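ok so heres the complex, two chains, lmk if somethin looks off
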Amino acid sequence: MNNQNISFSIEERETLYNIIFNRRDVRAEFTSQPIEDEILARLLVAAHHAPSVGFMQPWNFLLIDEKETQKKVHKLFDEANKEASEMFEGQRKNLYQNLKLEGLLKAPLHVCITCDRERAGPVVLGRTHMSNMDLYSTVCAVQNFWLAARAENIGVGWVSIFHEDELKQLLGIPETLHIIAYLTVGHVSSFNKKPDLERKGWRKRLNLKELIKHNNWQESTNDNLTSLIDKELKKQNPDERN
Amino acid sequence: MNNQNISFSIEERETLYNIIFNRRDVRAEFTSQPIEDEILARLLVAAHHAPSVGFMQPWNFLLIDEKETQKKVHKLFDEANKEASEMFEGQRKNLYQNLKLEGLLKAPLHVCITCDRERAGPVVLGRTHMSNMDLYSTVCAVQNFWLAARAENIGVGWVSIFHEDELKQLLGIPETLHIIAYLTVGHVSSFNKKPDLERKGWRKRLNLKELIKHNNWQESTNDNLTSLIDKELKKQNPDERN
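and the predicted structre for the whole thing:
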């Protein structure tokens, strides 16, 4: 049996949308409760079922639950983040410095997801012309992991303010591999309704309609689609013009 | 109200896993039935709610339903794919040439998802040290779109055998933007139970347990986690050792 016609219902579809809309990049809300191995196993299996170019499955998952190592990772973040804050000016710099950008010391588990570009040899089906495809496959695994975590009521935060080489050296990751995502993972006290950066006024959610083009870059899309998009957005934010 | 404690049930969690495990890269199974605007609106809203570095939302969505343009895109694929097949040798080349790698002429809709790296100015929160983060954010939008489509019982295929510059020129995409994914989208006759490349013997699904490291790259993970992973994998493939 190659085919199966699993058809999802309206209720199941709405469940996925609820998970997507309620997924957050968690920083401040982690609790110290350890992640159960049962849950972690499911998250990893979900990540492993991401699409990958040429079915190369280029990912590895490094689980870090040793407090000493987590503290060293936090130190690398701290140093890099000082450099980062110097790149902003004036009010933006103040705001930047007041943002909570990681939960490295609170989250009980870190998961570093890497990409091994050599996994399937030098010539990979589907990567012959767009060379980043293997990196993108690994990101699909990250997003599967993240959504699965939300469905398990587990928080995930993606921390990217690191010098990659320092992090690889600290964790013993081979030089030929690429770090795609460094995730903090844990139970949470609550999920915020909106992204932190939106709540804190860092940036606004963009108007989706303006991001859609039709057949050619010069053409906007049709009025029917844009009014339907409005309707969908209003369902989520009934109190807002969005 | 910043917080909300939406807690997903076991049934809802299992729905997400079913969607993840039954998502396929569709090539041969598209039907010509047009995608309803109601569905497309929901898919785009789901994509727009992906995580993004510094909340920059760097994506655009170019919808292509003009047959003439779709045919021109297919021609670009065809030329690139001839080059690609020359990169394989012997039996692999034969197998490659017999694989169906796109559904560009059958799928009623193409969606090209791009990344605008300049959207939030030169210094982006979270991109200061890992410069690819904006590309990865866009991939998260792709994966949201793909999973949402599966939940709507809509097929998606990601076609990557193109010279990016040729595709940009054909579609009028500004030079400064990056094409992350070129998707074919449509109703399908059925979803295959396994990935095409697995069914056709191109590559096997890897053993997840061997891809997991613990605290340091030299250390495998613990037996409890690996046996739980086995249990999860067996649920999906009760007839296989996996």
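quick notes: Chain B has eight helices and eight strands. thats all i got rn
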